[in-house]
Write a structure and sequence with these properties.
- This protein is an alpha+beta fold.
- The chain has a single domain, classed as Nuclear Transport Factor 2, Chain: A, CATH 3.10.450.
- Helix content is 19%, strand content 37%.
- The protein has four helices and ten strands, in the order βαααββαβββββββ.
- The two termini are 27 Å apart.
């Protein structure tokens, strides 16, 4: 019997469920006959390429590539009323800490001390841009000035490592903020690279 839990909340909220328990690591078995090819992570010269890398890093549970997506000043803002984090947001360090545990398949623990199964694999089903185009964020913005933003529909299924094949589904709308950074290349030229500097989880739908 499958147990489906549908969370109308953001990714960081799911990652926060995977915290400090046994530390057991589970990995999905690869197909020995048709092993998957290496995932592609193009240089994020546009916001669209950045979002593609974000999705691929989740699909492949690659913490190194996920880290490469995040700006040094990244911040995840939880939906209003969320009790995951008293401050209302996660810093880059907090987000990477919880996401690393989740990608590693570490078990979690409930508020009453029950051990929860870790994530076996992730199915990133939907990353749909709702905004017609990325728009500039004004310099007066208190959180992400100078960046660009767009609204997305997000749906991700987290398959848990338990006997019942349980799942947790994230279904939410989020605003993603992309920051262009001019980086010096090996030939001393500069090239714009986009980083994810923020996510805002909106009211659930």
């Amino acid at each position: 019997m499958r147990n489906h839990t549908r969370l109308l909340s953001g990714l960081a909220a799911v990652a926060a469920l995977v915290v400090l328990a046994g530390g057991c690591i589970f990995s999905p078995d690869d197909d020995p006959v048709n092993p998957p090819g290496p995932p592609s992570y193009p240089f994020p010269a546009t916001q669209d390429l950045l979002m593609a890398n974000f999705k691929t890093s989740y699909d492949n549970m690659s913490i190194e590539e996920y880290r490469n997506v995040l700006h040094t000043d990244f911040k995840f803002k939880f939906a209003e009323g969320s009790d995951v984090e008293p401050s209302g947001y996660y810093t880059r360090e907090q987000d990477l800490q919880t996401t690393t545990r989740m990608f590693n398949g570490e078990q979690g623990m409930s508020e009453i001390g029950e051990v929860k199964p870790g994530v076996r694999d992730i199915d990133f089903r939907l990353l749909e841009q709702l905004s017609p185009e990325w728009e500039d964020v004004p310099e007066s913005d208190p959180d992400f000035p100078g960046s660009t933003r767009a609204l997305f529909n997000v749906e991700i299924v987290f398959n848990l490592n338990d006997d019942g094949n349980s799942t947790i589904t994230v279904d939410s709308q989020q605003i993603f903020y992309a920051m262009p950074v001019a980086e010096v290349q090996e030939d001393s030229s500069t090239r714009l690279r986009y980083y994810l500097i923020g996510q805002t989880d909106l009211d659930t739908h």
